[in-house]
Specification:
The complex is a heterodimer of chains A (about 400) and B (about 150). Chain A contains 14 helices and 17 strands. Chain A is of the alpha/beta class. In chain A, the strands form 5 sheets. A 7-stranded mixed β-sheet of chain A has the order 4-10-9-8-7-5-6, with helices on both faces. In chain B, strands 1-2-3 form a 3-stranded antiparallel β-sheet, with helices on one face. The chains are: A alpha/beta (about 400), B alpha+beta (about 150). Chain B: It comes from Cytobacillus kochii.
């Protein structure tokens, strides 16, 4: 895999920011889009735009084929059994909320437990807080090890026969840790709980096989994996989805509508009320084609190499504190850090003046920030278009930041 | 590498307030307390105000945040001491205009606060600078409704 060549396929990366070539290290927030995805969306609006599943005209057929074709691409991408298990949503947040609003509210009551971890993104915390409040269930947190990883002994100790839902992220958006989802799912199932996986940071970077993981639900967003914003996926096992009620009601999701009663379409459409995100799904399909042509294994290996290189180079910076595992084993391309005596906002502003885009703040993970005892941190996240040269520039930028702030003092 | 345009942001006075914050701490007892945070970035401030005869007799702040938010808090507490409530709120409006790059009332001597003017050229940092001022305005409003 040649990151330099891949980079050429992303028009946005070919620009100067504040007088310097852009170094984009914020793919964890959202990835950039290759020309193939931009063109697929454009082509749809140029040639095929129409509503889906309605009417018999030619454009309608093209739009429906494009939309349902994207569903099949997603199925293959995560190795699901059937497209009935692939629901298009607005993104990870909406996907998790759907599980909470439909499955959890119907199946949980007082005395039941929901188990999540300290490293979850707010979108995998708040829906469960709300379910807990409404059903009387208890929300429990898996503790973290010193290096930010989850120990299976803690998983066994936390999940009980009262646990009905376990929801954990595949990859932490802050620590970069890759969690042992397959093992956690096994423990959850031994206690009769369902396993929900937040794959927002996993799907862009790792090969996912929902049957091998044996998870019950899995959520991810298109925009973090080279696709457009506004499209995401909820995977659910068929036998669970079949017994769940829709969350949104209206057009597209109905079978028969009477004056006082209606019936729902079959899976997956009963969960897709209203005109769906057609262009978004087609763009996501193009993103999947793009990623698979390069190969998820290659992408994972590339990011792993970048993570190892970043850990090594950043450690050279005086006053650097890196959070999460100290080595690149089981780490995705995310490195979160703080510089002594320089607030992460100030770090981000100084780097931005050099054309380097990183993220500073709490990364939508306030419970984790509390665990790390930080009010905010800086994060560099890498993707297939990043190179070791980007990390060299980051390192140089950080050394200069340090110097700049000791000079102004 | 040149950081020239950064110098318009990180002025000496700002760094001085960041490193040696004025009025850091918490006022005791029956002072007015306002907590405010910036939900998008994690900055947090606790402002305590003591009002006597319609004037700010004392003001202190505690908090966590970047150089801009903390220096702005330090300057704000310094500026409002001895001012009437109305004057303090007016100052906050002037500050807000300054951040938005609007013309502002320059009859009033702004002292150190003037140094924060450069923030207006860094749109992503404006909310850092205004946090303490918003907290102060909120405190003054609460004081009004409590009466
Ligand atoms: C781990 C994780 N979960 C969930 C989300 C939420 O994704 P979205 O905002 O696309 O719904 C994010 C994105 O920031 C994330 O990093």
């Amino acid at each position: 895999m040649n990151a330099k060549e891949i980079r050429e396929l992303f028009p946005i990366l070919n620009q100067e920011v504040n007088g310097h070539p852009l170094v984009y290290l914020d793919s964890g927030a959202t990835s950039q889009k290759p020309i193939q995805v931009i063109e697929a969306v454009q082509k749809y609006y140029h040639n095929d735009n129409s509503n889906v599943h309605r009417g018999v005209h030619t454009l309608g057929t093209r739009a429906t084929d494009g939309y349902e074709g994207a569903r099949e691409k997603v199925r293959k991408f995560i190795r699901a059994k059937s497209t009935e298990e692939i629901i298009f949503t607005r993104g990870t947040t909406t996907s998790i909320n759907k599980v909470a609003a439909s499955y959890a509210r119907a199946n949980l009551s007082e005395g039941d437990e929901i188990v999540i971890s300290y490293m979850e993104h707010h979108s995998n915390i708040i829906p469960w807080q709300q379910v807990a409040k409404e059903t009387g269930a208890t929300l429990k947190y898996l503790p973290l090890q010193e290096d930010g990883t989850i120990a299976l002994s803690d998983v066994s100790a936390t999940i009980t026969d009262q646990t009905k839902i376990v929801s954990v992220t595949l990859v932490s958006n802050v620590l970069g840790v890759i969690n042992p989802i397959k093992d956690i799912a096994k423990i959850a199932h031994q206690h009769g709980a369902v396993m929900v996986v937040d794959a927002a940071q996993g799907a862009p970077h790792l090969k996912i096989d929902v049957q091998d993981l044996d998870c019950d639900f899995l959520a991810f967003s298109g925009h973090k994996m080279c696709g457009p914003t506004g499209i995401g996926v909820l995977y659910g096992k068929k036998q669970l989805l079949e017994n769940m009620e829709p969350v949104e009601f209206g057009g597209e999701m109905i079978d028969f509508v009477g004056l006082y009663e209606s019936t729902w379409k079959e899976l997956p459409w009963k969960f897709e009320g209203g005109t769906p995100i057609i262009a978004g799904a087609i763009g996501l399909g193009a993103a999947i084609d793009f990623l698979e042509e390069i190969g998820l294994d290659q992408i994972e290996a590339h990011e792993h190499k970048l993570a190892a290189y970043a850990l090594e180079r950043l450690s050279e910076v005086e006053g650097m504190k890196i959070f999460g595992p100290k080595t690149a084993a089981n780490r995705a391309g995310i490195v979160t850090f703080n510089l002594d005596d320089v607030h992460p906002h100030d770090v981000a502003t100084v780097l931005d003046a050099e054309g380097i885009a990183i993220r500073a703040g709490h990364h939508c993970a306030q419970p984790l920030m509390k665990w790390l005892k930080q009010s905010a941190t800086a994060r560099a996240s890498f993707y297939l278009y990043n190179t070791e040269e980007d990390i060299d520039k980051l390192t140089t930028g950080l050394i200069k930041t340090k110097e700049y702030f000791s000079d102004v003092f | 590498m040149s950081f020239n345009n950064l110098d318009t942001l990180y002025r000496q006075v700002i760094m001085d307030h960041y490193k040696n914050p004025r009025n850091k701490g918490v006022l005791e007892d029956d002072s007015l307390t306002v907590n405010m945070n910036n939900p998008t970035c994690g900055d947090r401030i606790q402002l305590t105000l003591k009002l006597e005869d319609g004037k700010v007799a004392d003001a202190k702040f505690e908090g966590e945040g970047c150089s801009i938010s903390m220096s702005s808090a330090s300057m704000m507490t310094q500026a409002i001491k001895g001012k009437t409530k109305e004057e303090a709120v007016k100052l906050s409006h002037i500050f807000s205009d300054m951040m938005l790059g609007k013309d502002y009332d320059d009859d009033i001597d702004l002292g150190d606060i003037e140094a924060l003017q450069g923030v207006s050229q860094f749109p992503a940092r404006i909310k850092c600078a205004t946090l303490a001022w918003k907290a102060m305005e909120k405190g003054m409003n609460e004081e009004d409704t409590a009466k």
